[in-house]
Design a protein that fits this description.
alpha/beta, 5 helices, 4 strands
């Protein structure tokens, strides 16, 4: 993964991130609390990135403080430390992470209906990752069904 692609993903896809966490996460003062430091951490660890593995959620449940902060909140209510533990236990560390629907911030998934434009937007991200094959893990039934319906209609 080259630096220009990392920069494009960070700048153009605000819910994108990577399944890497610092050893201090989620403690106070960890690098995830400072966007610039966290982005530098991702750059320093780009050899650990695995862009062919994609963890795809439905939408952001709360407003993100800045780019690459999705799935890295240190607030206990988000339980991202438990998510990190799951990712590490499942050997998914370094995977690309994003939301299918970036345009809707809502904790209630019932208020979120993905559209074909959302799927196209997701495929644009995959194009940037430039992998021959993707292993996409969907974290919501709506995400899986939307992708299946979209692919069936093509």
């Amino acid at each position: 993964m080259d630096v220009s692609t990392l920069e494009t993903l960070k700048d153009e896809y605000p819910t994108s991130s990577w399944a890497l966490w610092s050893s201090g996460f989620p403690e106070e003062g960890c690098i995830e609390e400072t966007p610039a430091e966290f982005y530098e951490f991702i750059q320093r660890n780009q050899d650990r990135l695995r862009p062919s593995i994609v963890l795809l959620s439905l939408n952001p449940s709360t407003q993100l403080p800045s780019d690459y902060q999705n799935f890295h909140s240190t607030e206990p209510k988000h339980r991202n430390d438990q998510f990190r533990d799951f990712v590490e236990d499942a050997d998914l560390e370094g995977a690309y992470m994003t939301d299918l629907v970036e345009r809707i911030v809502d904790a209630n998934s019932g208020n979120v209906d993905p559209t074909p434009d959302d799927v196209e937007h997701f495929f644009e991200q995959l194009d940037l990752l430039d992998q021959e094959t993707y292993h996409i893990l969907c974290f919501h039934e709506k995400v899986f069904q939307t992708l299946m319906n979209y692919c069936d209609s093509r």
